[in-house]
Design goal:
The structure is a homodimer of 381-residue chains. By secondary structure, the first copy, chain A, is an alpha/beta fold. The first copy, chain A, has three domains: 75 residues, Orthogonal Bundle (Arc Repressor Mutant, subunit A), CATH 1.10.10; 132 residues, 2-Layer Sandwich (Nucleotidyltransferase, domain 5); 145 residues, Nucleotidyltransferase, domain 5. The first copy, chain A, is built from eleven helices and 15 strands. In chain A, α2 crosses α3, α7 packs across α8 and α7 packs antiparallel against α9. The longest helix of chain A has 25 residues. At the A-B interface, α1, β12 and α9 of A face α1, β12 and α9 of B. The first copy, chain A, binds a DNA duplex (30 and 30 nucleotides) through α1 and α3.
DNA sequence: CTACTTTGACAAGATCCTTGAATAAAACGG
DNA sequence: CCGTTTTATTCAAGGATCTTGTCAAAGTAG
């Protein structure tokens, strides 16, 4: 219960925050609009905007070529100064690094990517991350120290302090205090989060889940992962292990069986893992192979069987299929939607992620923006 | 985003709310303590308390026989005036009604209960509810119109407007606008909610889940139901159908099979339903029957199998077994805890509900209190 | 009984907001 | 081209609230 109270300066901060929030939410605003929207008088709004202007959070938009000319004296128009700060979103994958630099308006200013072997020693990986952030920042004309926040997404169980409690994919990652390590290497505030949670964050921000507050995100690639958006907030769980469905006892998540069987039957010589088998089957299905279509369909229904155990208790609005296998598109969504329609009282919509491979980096940017906003606004929302 | 802003009176309300909240949270407080806790000056705290005193929200505690005498002048001590308002919590079960009247401090002032046949026509049931509320209020020396809020819990899918979208147990209940019907019969604000959600609310407030913000509540009686507490808030779901696990496709929730088989084997003549079989088996197990113990154990493990599909993605701190079958106690909890320990990365604690049959009425009281607090505090928390 | 400590009460000063009137800048119509 | 209309800006006066500081009151400790 964050309770606000105090002297008159609190009131000022309250009103200032309100106006800044309004400006963040729209393109341009006049003083009259701001005063009305914030519920304060004009002179108050004016004084606040003047302060924000002086502090660099707001800028005046001078150009005057607008079509919707009003009758009277033209109002000064203001907007949030997106370039008043920048953040970086980082995705540390098993074999790749990606850094995305955005301004506070969420506009992308630079993107860097580089491959990194899965067996890279931990110190080298950390250095590579720091270096790639430096390069991406430089692309955007910034020093790392100028970044308001750096959001980092990685696989594994990541606790609230940014420690990697457990990681199956990256060797040496388990037990790493990623937050501390990166903070030591970067002259900027670092925030670390699990990749699944960032994926669903990204979908909520700019993806398929805009406006949806209850979402189950299914990540399907080499492994199956899950991210949950509940009541508009990303769910962490009591031990930050939300979405870790690797150790399920029943067969619900060993869905790859169907496509692997298919792969084995068609090309016995070729040994394919789960993801490769799925991609192989999807390719053949698109080429018109009926058996492949059925295998993918069974794969989808098997995924749905696992999804149902979560969807029925949670009653989400939407199910999003993300990860590499989201490229299967309708081939995967259709059987999943079918299963949901059959077995749910209120079937959620099943859709594929539209964000693609940048999903987690985008979520990391959002994470960093959230952190930046905690600095931007003096009082909690 | 509930954004607060405005003139100086907002500041006053902010501070007033802060002080009232502090007083709700502790037994007695002096002005100095209040001022420090609320972060305002003494004179401000004094003025606010004076206003609250005048409005009847706060009372001065005059008795002066306290042991912990301080050195200086004795401070006046104030406390929240619990009797400044009262609420009722109502539980409409398949065959019973229960009404609990509490003051705003949560102290129980009256309880009424009465059986009501499951096939009672809807208008009669509604009248019986209204009448029992009237009686319980009278027991507490109150008229219904004096109740600040009435919380109502019932089975079925209950949407945000208090409509019973679907009910399997009560005939004619489906499609009923319970909120509207009861509002028409009661001269007090009514809030309606699903019984599972109230059960978990009650556990969070006064039961086993105090201080736990992520809880899976499993209701085991004639039917299996579920209530979810996520991030300290009760989860409703996009269609208010959270916890409706009746239509699960797999066998996870048909756990009664084990105890029913046992019952059939031991007393083939006696036809028992799921709950009866379970109670029968529990009774025999307590009497020392090894086969019964095993049947109950299998029952527990089967429940756990269903639980796991939810527990693994959600990563709760605690699993609570409620409903009539919670009387099985350790016989049920032990196999469930075993299964959780085996199959979870971070196994939650499994416990039985300690609230018993009053659980849902208590949750309804909490629901009503929440509503009352929205009236009590002028600004959202 | 006196010194000390803590609380209570009150006044002065500061901050912030609001209302209302006067002024400024643009569009419209003759 | 000029006055009227419309809307925005600026300024001053007034009110609500909070804070600091001072002094009186009511106890305890010795």
């Amino acid at each position: 219960m964050r309770q606000v109270s105090g002297d008159a300066s609190v009131l000022r901060r309250l009103n200032s925050d309100a106006i800044l929030r309004i400006l963040r939410g729209r393109e341009l605003a006049t003083l009259t609009e701001l005063a009305a929207a914030a519920g304060v008088s004009r002179p108050t709004a004016e004084g606040i905007v003047e302060d924000l202007l002086a502090d660099g959070w707001v800028e005046e938009y001078a150009e005057d070529e607008r079509a919707d000319r009003q009758r009277g004296r033209p109002a000064r128009r203001f907007r949030f100064r997106a370039s008043s700060g920048h953040v970086a979103g980082v995705h540390i994958d098993s074999s790749n690094l990606q850094v995305m630099v955005c301004d506070l308006g969420g506009e992308v200013r630079a993107v860097r990517r580089r491959p990194l072997p899965v067996d890279t020693p931990v110190p080298d990986r950390l250095s590579a991350v720091a270096e790639l952030i430096r390069l991406a920042a430089a692309d955007a004309g910034l020093a790392v120290a100028e970044l308001t926040a750096v959001g980092v997404g990685t696989t594994g169980v990541v606790d609230g302090e940014g420690r990697v409690v457990k990681s199956i994919v990256l060797p040496g990652w388990t037990g790493l205090h990623l937050h501390a390590e990166l903070s030591a290497r970067l002259p900027a505030p670092v925030v670390v989060e699990n990749d699944m949670r960032l994926a669903v964050t990204a979908e909520h921000w700019r993806g398929a889940a805009r406006g949806c507050d209850d979402v189950v995100y299914l990540f399907a690639a080499d492994r199956i992962g899950m991210g949950l958006l509940i009541g508009g907030r990303v769910h962490r769980g009591a031990h930050a292990a939300s979405g870790e469905i690797g150790s399920q006892p029943n067969d619900n998540w060993s869905a790859f069986r169907h496509v692997m069987d298919y792969s084995m039957a068609v090309e016995p010589g070729e040994l394919r893992g789960g993801r490769q088998s799925a991609e192989f089957a999807v390719g053949r299905a698109r080429a018109g192979d009926e058996k492949a279509r059925l295998a993918v369909r069974e794969f989808g229904r098997a995924l749905a069987a696992g999804l149902l155990t979560v969807v029925n208790p949670l009653d989400p609005e939407m199910v999003i299929i993300g990860g590499d296998l989201s490229s299967a598109g309708d081939l995967l969504v259709e059987p999943i939607q079918e299963s949901l329609d059959e077995h749910c009282l209120y079937p959620p919509r099943a859709v594929v992620s539209g964000l693609g491979g940048e999903c987690i980096a985008v979520g990391a940017v959002r994470l960093a923006l959230d952190h930046a906003e905690r600095l931007l606004f003096t009082l909690p929302a």
